[in-house]
Amino acid sequence: MDQYIGLDISLKDTAISIRQDGKRIWRGKCPSDPKLLAEMIRKHAPHAKRVVFETGPLSTWFYHALTAEGVPAICIEARHAQKVLDETLNKTDANDADGLAHLAEAGFYKAVRLKAFDSMLTRTLVAARNQLLTISTQLSNQIRGLMKTFGLIVPKGKGRIFDGNIRQLLDGNDGLGKIILPLLEAWRDIRRRAADLDRQLLAAARESQETKLLMTIPGIGAVTAISYVAAIEDPENFRTSRSVGAWLGLTTRRYQSGEVDYDGHISRRGDNHLRGLLYEAATVLLTRTSARNENSLRSWGLKLRERLGFKRAAVAVARKLAVIMHSMLKTGEVFNALAGATA
């Protein structure tokens, strides 16, 4: 009597397919609202055992909302599901829901751990801050480029220095000033908003013991530490610390077939933003760490740089940082400068 359900979720509607004893017993559509979906599932599948849907923009909301409604929701890896769904002759939402229901019945899927809303709130804060900083940089570059056309070269400088240089160059040029000054005001306003988010982020970092623990590592700042904590959530989510490097896409891909066997570039799977932050932290550790913060991890990375080049060494140090940070969260110990490279 167990029933297996596949959901193909889109922004407006969700296609539903229900299977029982190897046969489809019902399929239809419902507005993409978890409460309405839960009612539909209880009506047509009172003995639902698995409700499967793919990862996507709405997956976190749907998973937590359906689980709160008592629905046995399971979010599965979209890349794995796609290989099965691509086998259908006609690509439709209904057929995708059928394919997901098949996977639910067969149990042939890879479940994904979805983050809690608190962690997603932190990630949203970091993402919003980064977006404002990116827009600020784009605007400043645009202003420099527009003024260069008229022979006005803006000297190097940031913040108030940049603002003062622009106003000084525009003095007496009212025609160009009417165009540039609104851009400059927008630039200043965006920087103020970014500073507000900066203060929120730093306040959240000060309240988190895990974040302060990770910031004992040279090169790890508040943004990297709080992003790492939000991504990992509970250290027990990973059986071993070494698996975190692979989860973040910092381990090399391997291809083996017959007599062919070689390692390629890193897989670049997982969280792109956190992987980039760890790479930046590794770069800082290798290039800007002072003598008083000398540690075995940096020494190990510098030896790799001599043998493999800077980029490969930085990737290796980033992977090692991911492993060490997980181990620190698990044990609650601060960074050990002498044992860092052996973690």
Automatic annotation (TrEMBL):
InterPro entries: Transp_IS110-like_N, Transpos_IS110, Transposase_20. Residues 5-149 form the Transposase IS110-like N-terminal domain. It comes from the Bacteria. GO terms for biological process: DNA transposition. GO terms for molecular function: DNA binding; transposase activity. Residues 212-290 form the Transposase IS116/IS110/IS902 C-terminal domain. NCBIfam families: transpos_IS110. This is Transposase. It comes from Phyllobacterium bourgognense. The lineage of its organism: Bacteria, Pseudomonadati, Pseudomonadota, Alphaproteobacteria, Hyphomicrobiales.
